[in-house]
UniProtKB/TrEMBL annotation:
It catalyses: RX + glutathione = an S-substituted glutathione + a halide anion + H(+). Residues 90-211 form the GST C-terminal domain. SUPFAM superfamilies: GST C-terminal domain-like, Thioredoxin-like. Residues 1-88 form the GST N-terminal domain. It comes from Hirondellea gigas. PROSITE patterns: GST_CTER, GST_NTER. Keywords: Transferase. This is glutathione transferase. Belongs to the GST superfamily. Mu family. Belongs to the GST superfamily. Pi family.
Length: 223
């Protein structure tokens, strides 16, 4: 039986996991849950399933592969990375991957917090004015002519970084103008055969604009 990835019908915390699954050629099924429309944004679809899955800590996303049941997006991503050789080959590699993931998570968290803020319209201009700060941090991860975060070796950090760049470009299309190497990195990941095929699929196109949940002030996308 194929593994099952469960998450909302959006990109959010699961998109980098989807990229890893497609890059590694893992056949899997996806259980997507839909939040209801506002103002309630009902989570009933997920709540109806939550307690019947045998998850120790029920949450989304989840990954079920036979008797293996994992929640928390970072735990799922790192499990897949270890399984498929996407966590580097040395302790130095693994440290760099962990640092890169930490930096990317920090940048993403601050941006997502803005997206859900009731004062988004008032705060966004100041964020845009300083966007070179967070984007510059991301750019350092692939500086010095690095093809990937680990140089010439692809890792889980690259897919996490790629999805974060995608969010920023959707938010402000010109944000990479001063970071040509980061723009080249984005294009490089998008052009990986398995990723390119997935991103052209109806499966991806359905959620392409849905970076955040439906209650967000930016990034909820089209339904």
């Amino acid at each position: 039986m194929a593994p099952v990835l469960g998450y909302w019908s959006l990109r959010g915390l699961a998109q980098h996991i989807r990229y890893v699954l497609h890059y590694t050629g893992t056949e899997y099924e996806e259980k997507q849950y839909n939040a209801g429309p506002g103002p309630e944004y009902s989570k009933q679809e997920w709540l109806d399933d939550r307690d019947s899955l045998g998850l120790e800590f029920p949450n989304l996303p989840y990954y079920i592969d036979g008797d293996l049941k994992i929640t928390e997006s970072t735990a799922i991503l790192r499990h897949l990375a270890r399984k498929h050789g996407l966590y580097g080959s040395t302790e130095e590699d693994r440290i760099r991957v962990d640092v890169a993931c930490g930096i990317t998570h920090d940048v993403t968290f601050r941006f997502i917090r803005l997206c859900y803020d009731d004062k988004f319209e008032k705060l966004k201009d100041a964020y845009i004015a300083d966007i070179s700060g967070p984007v510059g941090k991301l750019a350092k991860l692939v500086a010095d002519n690095r093809t990937y975060v680990l140089g010439d070796k692809i890792s889980l950090a690259d897919f996490l970084l790629f999805e974060t760049i995608e969010r920023f470009v959707a938010f402000m299309p010109t944000c990479l103008a001063s970071f040509e190497h980061l723009s080249a990195f984005q294009a490089r990941i998008a052009d990986l055969p398995a990723i390119k095929t997935y991103r052209s699929s109806p499966e991806f196109q359905k959620i392409r604009t849905r970076f955040t949940g439906r209650s967000a002030k930016w990034g909820a996308g089209e339904y």
